[in-house]
Specification:
326 residues, alpha/beta, Rossmann fold, Zinc Finger, Delta Prime, domain 3, 16 helices, 5 strands, 56% helix, 7% strand, globular
């Protein structure tokens, strides 16, 4: 298992292991596709590896964790009665098992993916077991947006930021996964080192069309062309494509905000982000970005793509106009 762009995280984990104590509850933060799940698996290996130089990546514990078959490294979101969606009732029932001893290892590791999708009831259901941890349980939360995590939870976890790989690191990771070198470098530049997004685009035959469409929608927003934006959004035929477009728009406007603040980015559609940063106020860019993030999180509850398209267009332009004082 190779970790790219995780120097700071590894240094912090190294300090924990040197002191002989890894916090019982960790929060891994970072953008979608930055490698948070891979880092969580690495930490689980660090906790369960039997080798003196942990994680060795070769012992039975490490290999089973890498293959996601270790009985004491569990992913509740995948194992609830309704997989892929947290509910307080199901989570309480599932976590009742935390009072039992682990199966094989000295400790059991719970990895809570997409923690930002937990509502307050779900998070409160976990508070007691985090506050009063049993000696054989460890907890790792993964989130792309910690603003949705309750302060009471944040105060009881130790944050480990998952840094984004550099463009060169990303390209190297892609070539190691069988992507041709020139495409790997192009993808790495397009998605600003985001390995997950690069692999999605590489494996998705529809990826290039999504990228083109997202750039056109962003340009229409930048130029206040609401009709053009609506026409392109309405051309989207299914919810998966709508989600992909919103994620790409999030990248574009997020990178525009970075550029506006004087930062440098190799993110998705850099020329479009640069134009948005040049022609729009920071307030407008941030307002549109915030709306796109909210729309993206609501996609699970909006099955009608055409109505979603209309809502997206209306909310994006409303946010843009409000931030412009019109």
């Amino acid at each position: 298992m190779k970790l790219y762009g995780k120097k700071d995280a590894l240094e912090r984990l190294g300090r924990f292991t040197a002191s002989g104590r890894i916090p019982h509850a960790l929060l891994i933060t970072g953008a979608d596709g930055a490698g948070k799940r891979t880092l969580a698996d690495y930490i689980a290996m660090l906790m369960l590896c039997t080798d003196a130089d942990a994680p060795c990546m070769n012992c039975k514990e490490c290999l089973r964790i890498a293959e996601h078959i270790h009985p004491d490294v569990v992913y509740p979101l995948r194992e609830l009665k309704t997989p892929g969606k947290y509910s307080a009732t199901e989570l309480r029932e599932y976590m009742a098992g935390c009072y039992k001893l682990p199966n094989d290892a000295p400790v059991r590791v719970y990895i809570f993916e997409q923690a930002e999708t937990m509502n307050d009831h779900c998070q409160n259901a976990l508070l007691k077991i985090i506050e009063e941890p049993l000696s054989f349980n460890r907890y790792i939360f993964i989130t792309s947006d910690k603003s949705f995590i309750l302060e009471t939870v944040l105060s009881r976890v130790t944050e480990i930021p998952a840094g984004m790989p550099s463009v060169d690191e990303c390209a190297r990771a892609l070539t190691e996964r069988g992507v041709e070198a020139s495409e790997a470098h192009s993808l790495a530049q397009t998605f600003g080192g985001n390995i997950g997004r690069c692999l999605e685009a590489h494996n998705d035959e529809n990826g290039s069309e999504i990228m083109k469409l997202s750039s056109e929608i962003a340009a229409a927003v930048c130029k206040d062309r609401e009709y053009d934006c609506m026409a392109r959004l309405c051309s989207i035929k299914n919810r998966d494509d709508m989600t992909s477009v919103l994620r790409s728009l999030s990248d574009i406007f997020g990178n525009a905000a970075v550029i506006s603040a004087g930062g440098k980015t190799y993110g998705f559609a850099p020329s479009v982000s640069a134009e948005i940063a040049e022609k729009n106020s920071v307030k407008k860019i941030n307002a549109v970005y915030t709306v796109i993030q909210r729309l993206l999180r609501s996609m699970d509850f909006n099955p009608n793509v055409q109505l979603t398209a209309a809502r997206c267009c209306a909310e994006i332009f409303s946010a843009a106009e409000d931030s412009s004082g019109r």
